[in-house]
Amino acid sequence: MRGWLVSDIFSCELKDFSMKSHQHTIAYVKRQAKKIKRERGISHAEALDIVSKSFGFSNWMHCQRSLSKINDSTETVSTPVELSFTDWLKRHSNRDSPLGDLARDMSRDKSWPTYNSLDEYRSYLRFQNAYYGAIETLNRAWKRYKAYLKTKENPTKDTTTPKKPSRKNYDERKIVYVKNVTSIHFSKRTVEEFVPGDRAWVSWDGRKAIPVTITGVDDRYYSFKTERPLNKASGGYFLFLDEVRSTPELACINCRTS
Question: What's the fold here for domain 176-253?
Answer without folding.
Answer: SH3 type barrels. (2.30.30)
